Structure formats: structure tokens, C-alpha cells
């Protein structure tokens, strides 16, 4: 079917509707003249192009490919148009069924081109969030992403202190969406030392520490049912907890991290030095103004991590 043809089911639905109306009015149907037929076809084509997701995606990608050719030199008007296309593409890619069509229309190449060359942070944040939308709970999309240069590019953006904070946060989210619940992507992440690179952010950058530590914790949580890797990030998560407590920077994410360590980490899964550091941080938190369930979690952690490892 060409892009100008109207899918048969649209005509069938129109026929069904018109037949229903005729049954109610008892009017004799009229044969359309040429002008009326042409008008109806134009209306139907417009309807199809506006509501058919595949056609919308093809149209959006066609426009983005044009803008990608000069991604490093967009006018103010171009930026506004690209942002509108980004919003529309993000909505469409919530449907995993469009994955193959997106890729076949140079989707990954276009995203990479913008993220490398575009100087507008708002556009780049939008494209990074599109990757998150597309990869989340989409094994096919995750597998395609991990095999593309985009995966390592996102990780490079996440750790690049010269990039805008908003873009780096979006890149961290995109990396997380690509990895979570997808072991092949996680293995590539380890091979790129991604966990060490993100942990470095927690150690050295207060503004991104909470977000990054929670991301590592979330990835670790999704590994709980994997026999091979379920313990692989637990020491890193504990190190992140120690860093956050020692920095004494109030971040909402620390509650989530603390809860994860309490429920999923055993002292035997970290070395003695880290066990002692976690315990010191738990005691330090108990000396601060902590309320509600957090007190219960901290008390559980103190009992658990007070036990020294044998030998």
C-alpha cells in the first residue's frame, strides 16, 4: 500500500457507519458525483495521516532526518519545530509495536546525530527521554540499543561534567531504562565499567549524587531474581549509601536506597571494611532527625550490620 492509499478498514468503518445511519433515516443512498468523491477521499486521507500511528511516525522521522543534516546549526524557528516533533515522537514510541518501523526509518541514526551535534540542551534532553520511553520494558528496543553506538554515547554524556545537568540526568535515565530487566544490556554496561563511572558521579558531584545512586539501586533491584548477577551491584549500592550519608545532603533518594539495603543486602555480601562503614552511617543517621518508617529501617540495618563477618 502506498502512502497515498487509504487502508481498506477505514472505508469499511465508514460504510458501516453510513449503513447504520441510512437504516435509521430510511433514506435511499445516493451515488457520489466526482467532486464529492474527490472531497471524501481527501478527507479520508487527512484522517488517516492524522490518526494512523505508522504514518505519523514515518512523517515525523522524515522531517527529523532533514533537520538532523544540520543539527549543529539550527535556527530558532528550527528548534521550535524539532521540539514539537520530539514531543510527538515520544508519544508514539510509548507503543513498542512501532520499534521496527522506528529503526527502519533511521531512528537510531537520527538520535545519535542530534545528541552528538545539536547545541540545544532542550532538544537533547527530549531525545534522551525518548530513548527512555522507547527502551522501558521493551526487550527488543533494549537489545537494539545495546548493539548501537547510542548506548556508549549515553554513558559518555552521563559522566561528562561539561554537559548540562538536565541532559546528564536524562542520559542516566536512558541508560537505566536500557539496562533494567535486560541481562545482555547489563553485561555490556559492566563491560563499559558503567557501574564504576556512575559511582564516581556519586562520589564527586553533590547535585547528581542522589539521582545516580538511586539509578544504581534500581538496576540492582531488577537483578534480584538473576542467579548470576543478583549480588553484583550490592557493594556499589552500599558505597553510594555511605557517600550520601557522609555528604549529609538531604536527598529523597536515600530512603529508597536505605530500604533496598535493609531488604536485599546481607553483611556477608560486602567486605568487612564496607560493612563497618555502613554501620557507622546507620548510627550517624539515627543521631539525626529521622522520623516514621525510616527509624524502623535504620534499626533493622543496625542489627543486621552490627554482626561481624567470621574470619
TrEMBL record:
GO terms for MF: adenyl-nucleotide exchange factor activity
Gene Ontology CC terms: endoplasmic reticulum
InterPro entries in the cross-refs: ARM-like (IPR011989), ARM-type_fold (IPR016024), Hsp70_NEF-Inhibitors (IPR050693)
SUPFAM superfamilies linked: ARM repeat (SSF48371)
Coiled-coil regions, chain positions: none
Gene3D superfamilies tied to this protein: Leucine-rich Repeat Variant
PANTHER family: HSP70-BINDING PROTEIN 1 (PTHR19316:SF18), PROTEIN FOLDING REGULATOR (PTHR19316)
Name of the protein: TOG domain-containing protein
Source organism (scientific name): Caenorhabditis auriculariae
Lineage: Eukaryota, Metazoa, Ecdysozoa, Nematoda, Chromadorea
Amino acid at each position: 500500500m502506498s502512502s497515498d492509499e487509504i487502508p481498506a478498514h477505514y472505508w469499511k468503518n465508514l460504510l458501516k457507519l453510513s449503513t447504520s445511519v441510512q437504516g435509521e433515516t430510511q433514506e435511499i443512498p445516493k451515488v457520489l458525483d466526482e467532486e464529492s468523491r474527490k472531497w471524501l477521499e481527501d478527507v479520508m486521507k487527512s484522517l488517516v495521516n492524522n490518526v494512523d500511528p505508522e504514518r505519523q511516525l514515518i512523517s515525523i522521522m522524515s522531517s527529523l532526518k532533514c533537520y538532523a543534516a544540520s543539527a549543529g546549526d539550527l535556527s530558532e524557528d528550527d528548534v521550535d519545530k524539532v521540539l514539537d516533533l520530539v514531543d510527538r515522537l515520544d508519544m508514539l514510541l510509548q507503543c513498542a509495536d512501532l520499534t521496527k518501523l522506528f529503526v527502519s526509518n533511521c531512528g537510531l541514526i537520527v538520535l545519535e546525530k542530534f545528541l552528538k551535534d545539536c547545541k540545544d540542551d532542550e532538544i537533547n534532553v527530549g531525545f534522551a527521554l525518548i530513548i527512555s520511553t522507547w527502551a522501558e520494558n521493551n526487550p527488543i528496543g533494549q537489545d537494539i540499543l545495546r548493539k548501537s553506538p547510542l548506548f556508549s554515547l549515553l554513558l559518555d554524556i552521563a559522566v561528562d561534567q561539561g554537559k548540562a545537568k538536565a541532559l546528564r540526568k536524562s542520559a542516566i535515565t536512558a541508560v537505566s531504562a536500557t539496562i533494567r530487566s535486560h541481562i545482555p544490556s547489563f553485561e555490556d554496561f559492566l563491560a563499559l565499567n558503567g557501574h564504576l563511572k556512575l559511582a564516581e558521579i556519586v562520589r564527586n558531584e553533590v547535585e547528581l549524587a542522589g539521582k545516580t545512586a538511586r539509578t544504581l539501586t534500581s538496576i540492582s533491584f531488577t537483578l534480584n531474581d538473576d542467579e548470576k548477577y543478583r549480588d553484583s551491584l550490592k557493594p556499589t549500592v552500599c558505597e553510594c549509601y555511605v557517600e550520601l550519608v557522609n555528604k549529609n545532603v538531604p536527598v529523597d533518594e536515600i530512603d529508597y536506597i536505605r530500604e533496598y539495603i535493609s531488604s536485599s543486602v546481607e553483611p556477608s555480601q560486602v567486605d568487612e571494611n564496607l560493612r563497618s562503614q555502613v554501620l557507622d552511617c546507620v548510627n550517624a543517621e539515627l543521631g539525626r532527625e529521622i522520623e516514621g518508617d525510616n527509624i524502623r529501617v535504620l534499626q533493622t540495618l543496625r542489627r543486621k550490620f552490627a554482626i561481624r563477618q567470621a574470619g
